[in-house]
Amino acid sequence: MPDRLITHLRHVDLAVPDHAKQLAFYTGVWGLKPEHTDIGLTFLAAEGSPEQYVVRLRESDDKRIDLIAFGAASRADVDTLAGDLARDGVRLVTEPGDLRTPGGGYGFRFFDNEGRTVEISADVAVREHRTIEEGESIPVRLSHVVINSADPEGTRAFYERHLSFALSDTLMHPRMGEMMWFMRINAWHHSLAIARGPHPSLHHASFELRGLDEYMRGTGRVLRAGVEKIWGPGRHLAGNNTFSYFLDPSGNTMEYTTELETLDEDTWHPHVYDFSKPEVSDQWGTANAMNEFVAQRSFNDPDRGLFVAPPV
């Protein structure tokens, strides 16, 4: 098993131009719960997750990924990671210290190779959560985050070298070459994936539902609410997880998923899948075809916050 100090994905923080409209979507349609709210700032929890929140919304003129946050096992591990990154010339946004966000904890922030702000934290208080019951079509947890990168090979190398991410699988196209890399920090097939894109931006954030029935019920609920569906429902080959992709009011792609594969890290060997084969994109054959329209919608707007730390 790889030697790594990061344990899991905590949350993704988004700056959006219309906080009220986004909040109505994520609470009234998507199924998240507002736990901590201030003017233009909301922390949204998943009912089944011990994390204090899985999405943070901040109102801003600049649409951006404010932050991608990962957990570490201890304060000592946080200090070790911060020291290693600084010695390697990675630009720290904050030094390790006590966090002022819900749940407290101890952490620090830094810029990745393309300027996204990343946080590593430990000792965050566990949120009181519950088991999601049969038939409840609300998110259990934040499953993974996928980012678009103008330099995906460099971005993959950054996360492998500095944070000990491991490659699970790769998607390629006969004409375009390698296009997406699925990266893990634990036994889940991926917590982060990197897509080749025209600019750095959010590709999508994915939320795990309880099971297949809940996943389909959730997909149907979002469709009935009139939310624009981009792709799905279907089941990917890489990761073996289900997918339904929708656009939130700010044009960010959000996914419902379930049954993401867990791996034996000691024996796993990465595959290279040709996604021009329909069964790679969707094993079931139930989703609309992956085409240029679908791909372009997931390019998203260029991230306007690169190498600029969020104010909160």
From TrEMBL:
InterPro entries: Glyas_Bleomycin-R_OHBP_Dase, Glyas_Fos-R_dOase_dom, MMCE/EMCE_epimerase, VOC_core. The keyword Transmembrane does not apply. Keywords: Metal-binding. Residues 8-123, 141-259 form the VOC domain. It comes from the Bacteria. Signal peptide: none annotated. The keyword Metal-binding applies. Pfam families: Glyoxalase (PF00903). PANTHER family: METHYLMALONYL-COA EPIMERASE (PTHR43048), METHYLMALONYL-COA EPIMERASE, MITOCHONDRIAL (PTHR43048:SF3). This is VOC family protein. It comes from Nonomuraea bangladeshensis.
